[in-house]
């Protein structure tokens, strides 16, 4: 291991490296093992939400994830021995001792000896860094932990508690260990009273609250009171996620908007799993809203204007919702045109001005990104230095008001992420307007056509999705259904920063002879996909005409490609696959159609391709 003095990098540079690799679990582990300074800067990131790292991994099976979650929970629970485990009115979720110590006769005769036992000093206080406690299912890890405890004779959980009681006890121990450092808490709503309310005064840095398993008719008044009291005392709670429990007999949670209204200035409202959220959209506070994520199950009602609501969200950066109005972004188009008379210099000057929402601060404390300051914890990992940048993790997790100032022209939103669904007659015009209005800020664009689940819309013969102006920040484009068929691949030439492209065709395409002209037009234009020269990931779902000649063009144009999915596509052969594998040195994952290697001679060729590049993960998929 490199000693600290041999790593001549300032802390600011190390922090930049850590933030850049924040989604790469293996890279973070490598940093931990590299030097003492990297260990100190990386641990607060690696263990702030370790269960999420395991759950989001695509390399492990479900059984492997359960094993790792079990081991991780054991590590967190044994980081520190509970204080006064035998004191009255104190719930003890676990004990760190040998199995025979828990025999009733041994406990009766040796209770004083057990009380005086101390754990060996922990090398790292892992539980201290567990600041992003997103909701996790404790059931399976606790079942496995009980089994492991009895088999290994190392430590056991409290056998006197039922599994439901044990889940609550463990949740309490995780929250109450260091509540002043916690930024995110996710719990079933029924546990709020027992887990969160007793610690509301010490949860002084809580930013995000995630509530799940909300049954219809559940009394939400205690939760509303907790939010109001915490917000009035600490002024930090700015984000909320609401997940209702589906009840076919009473499918209504239309009172849950009161949870959002209880917050003084909500900036993030995640209602993807709250079905009725779109119906009460007009009751959600919009003054400071930065992120609005709605479910796609229902369309907006007609008794209020969605464009008027969005026009009031002047700080909005991320939007996910269904649309039923093609003019949903007309307000943004009008505002952009109104700035035309200002001139380029004036618009640039306004864009650089920093306008903060109510209650926001101009400072950027990095304890939001890493762990909180270690001033009150002697001997712990030092607090990292400030980093004046916006990372992908900041955009994809939670957006605390103190992270960054909102750089935008005052009086208008600057959307970075847009995810829409709807019928094509409304969806395609809305997308065109969105791409036009937010051309300078758009980074993520996703759309799904509801025609995929309904009937085919003949107006696609005259409706297209395209643009002729640069989208300099767009990095992800994901289109599904009719809207993917309506997309003009020539528009990719105006997306110089695009690194991920996913296009999914409707499943019925080519089902009738009337699709022949569409197929021929697609064949003539498929070469335009190579305009996206900086792609890292390309996924083509459906019957896209992918020929060997196109694969050859990819090796010459899209040389940075690391992931390619062409399972359901037709027209290519193993010769084209061989050329692709030989030409793309960075290719790590390739999905092809299983029928390509149905014959035994072809199977031998495929095995030879795999042997030629053993690091390449070559997957054979079924054509749907």
TrEMBL record:
It comes from the Eukaryota. This is Uncharacterized protein. It comes from Mortierella alpina (Oleaginous fungus). The lineage of its organism: Eukaryota, Fungi, Fungi incertae sedis, Mucoromycota, Mortierellomycotina.
């Amino acid at each position: 291991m490199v000693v600290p003095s041999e790593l001549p990098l300032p802390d600011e540079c190390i922090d930049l490296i850590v933030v850049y690799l924040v989604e790469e679990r293996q890279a973070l582990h490598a940093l931990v093992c590299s030097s003492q300074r990297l260990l100190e800067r990386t641990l607060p990131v690696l263990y702030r939400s370790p269960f999420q790292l395991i759950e989001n991994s695509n390399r492990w099976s479900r059984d492997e994830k359960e094993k790792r979650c079990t081991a991780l929970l054991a590590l967190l629970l044994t980081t520190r021995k509970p204080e006064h485990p035998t004191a009255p009115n104190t719930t003890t979720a676990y004990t760190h001792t040998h199995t025979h110590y828990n025999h009733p006769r041994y406990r009766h005769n040796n209770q004083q000896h057990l009380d005086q036992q101390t754990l060996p000093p922990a090398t790292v206080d892992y539980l201290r860094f567990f600041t992003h406690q997103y909701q996790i299912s404790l059931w399976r890890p606790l079942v496995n932990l009980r089994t492991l405890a009895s088999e290994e004779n190392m430590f056991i959980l409290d056998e006197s508690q039922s599994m439901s009681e044990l889940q609550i006890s463990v949740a309490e121990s995780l929250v109450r260990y260091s509540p002043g450092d916690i930024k995110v808490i996710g719990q079933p709503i029924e546990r709020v009273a027992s887990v969160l309310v007793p610690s509301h005064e010490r949860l002084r840095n809580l930013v995000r609250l995630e509530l799940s398993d909300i049954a219809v008719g559940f009394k939400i008044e205690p939760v509303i009171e907790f939010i109001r009291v915490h917000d009035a005392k600490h002024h930090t709670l700015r984000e909320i996620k609401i997940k209702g429990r589906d009840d076919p007999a009473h499918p209504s949670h239309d009172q849950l908007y009161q949870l959002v209204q209880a917050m003084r200035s909500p900036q993030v409202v995640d209602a993807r799993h709250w079905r009725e959220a779109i119906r009460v959209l007009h009751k959600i506070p919009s003054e400071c809203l930065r992120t609005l994520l709605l479910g796609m199950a229902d369309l907006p009602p007609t008794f209020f204007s969605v464009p008027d609501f969005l026009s009031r969200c002047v700080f909005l950066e991320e939007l996910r919702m269904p649309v039923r109005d093609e003019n949903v972004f007309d307000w943004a188009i009008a505002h952009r045109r109104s700035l035309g008379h200002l001139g380029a210099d004036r618009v640039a000057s306004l864009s650089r001005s920093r306008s903060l929402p109510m209650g926001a601060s101009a400072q950027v404390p990095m304890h939001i990104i890493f762990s909180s300051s270690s001033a009150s914890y002697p001997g712990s990992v030092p607090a990292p230095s400030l980093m004046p940048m916006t990372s992908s993790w900041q955009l994809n997790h939670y957006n605390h008001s103190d992270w960054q100032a909102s750089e935008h022209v005052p009086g208008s939103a600057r959307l970075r992420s847009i995810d829409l669904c709807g019928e094509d007659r409304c969806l395609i015009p809305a997308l065109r307007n969105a791409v036009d209005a937010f051309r300078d800020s758009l980074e993520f664009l996703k759309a799904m056509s509801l025609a995929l689940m309904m009937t085919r819309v003949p107006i696609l013969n005259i409706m297209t999705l395209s643009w002729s102006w640069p989208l300099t920040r767009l990095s992800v484009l994901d289109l599904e259904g009719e809207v993917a068929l309506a997309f003009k691949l020539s528009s990719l030439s105006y997306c110089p920063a695009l690194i991920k492209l996913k296009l999914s065709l409707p499943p019925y395409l080519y089902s009738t002879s009337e699709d022949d002209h569409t197929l021929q037009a697609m064949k003539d234009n498929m070469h335009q996909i190579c305009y996206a020269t900086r792609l890292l990931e390309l996924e083509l779902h459906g019957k896209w005409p992918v020929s060997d000649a196109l694969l050859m063009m990819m090796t010459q144009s899209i040389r940075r490609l690391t992931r390619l999915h062409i399972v359901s596509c037709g027209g290519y052969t193993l010769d084209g696959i061989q050329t692709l594998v030989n030409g793309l040195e960075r290719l790590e994952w390739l999905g092809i159609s299983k029928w390509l290697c149905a014959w035994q001679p072809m199977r031998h060729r495929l095995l030879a391709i795999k042997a030629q590049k053993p690091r390449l993960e070559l997957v054979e998929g079924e054509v749907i």
